[in-house]
Amino acid sequence: MNPKVDFFFNKAKKWQEEFEKLRMIILDCGLTEELKWGQPCYTLKDKNIVLMHGFKEYCALLFMKGALLNDSKGILIQQTENVQAARQIRFTNVGEIVKLETILKAYIHEAIEVEKAGLKVKLKKTSEFKIPEEFQSKLDKSKALKTAFETLTPGRQRAYIFYFSQPKQSKTRESRVEKCMQQILDGKGLDD
User: Fold this and answer.
1) What's the CA gap between 8 and 6, in Å, rounded?
2) Whole-model pTM over 0.85
3) I need a labelling partner for 38 at 20 to 30 A (CA). Which of 49, 77, 141, 175 fits?
4) Pair 10, 79 in one domain
């Protein structure tokens, strides 16, 4: 146990019992406990293996390279279609964790073996993501916008593509594109 991580467990208003049980299970697997992104993160030789976090409806274990795990029990969840490597196992009460303890340990040990083997998740290239038609039509009409977008880093391009793709309504997607056009022309990313 890392005393720096204790503050996370002490401040948790929700999921405290669940977090404590998950902590014991993970530490029993021989990982190092650290605090990263304000969450308990468990590492092997400075490589992130699994992270614990809580949400309103559930708490979860996040396997950093979960996409590479066998998932023989079918319990890993891809949070959104854009998450490429990480996978979660979600819990709504401590009883679920107790029931799955042996399976959780097996998944953690498999994640450790994936890391030891040096396996990497093959990430999609930015060009493989579908550009929403509202943005594509603007790119087709404006050579300056297309050039500016293509000169952005792949990460900045992905951020815009994800941001423009999120809304269900075309009107909202179009509004987002309109708002961001000047920023793209200025060579800036979504959060710059």
Assistant:
1) 5
2) no
3) 77
4) yes
Q: Look at residues 86, 116, 146 and tell me which one is the last residue of a structural domain.
A: 116
Give a yes or no: residue 34 inside a domain.
yes
Amino acid at 76: L
Question: Which residue is listed with tokens 């949070």?
Answer: 79
- Predicted local distance difference test score (pLDDT) of residue 34: 95
Q: What CATH number did the domain enclosing 88 receive?
A: 3.90.1150.200
Q: How many angstroms separate the CA atoms of 95 and 80, rounded?
A: 26
pLDDT-based confidence at residue 9 (cuts at 50, 70, 90):
confident
Closest among 76, 64, 69 to 34, alpha carbons compared: 64
Q: Of 68, 90, 116, which residue constitutes the final position of a domain?
A: 116
Q: How many domains does one find in the chain?
A: 2
Q: How is 96-112 classified by DSSP, letter by letter? A: HHHHHHHHHHHHHHHHH
Long-range contacts, 161-165 (Cβ 8 Å, 24+): 161/126, 161/129, 161/130, 161/131, 161/132, 161/135, 162/82, 162/129, 163/190, 164/131, 164/132, 164/134, 164/135, 165/130, 165/132
Closest residue by Cα to residue 66 from 119, 24, 103: 119
Compute φ and ψ for 157, nearest 5 degrees.
-60, -45
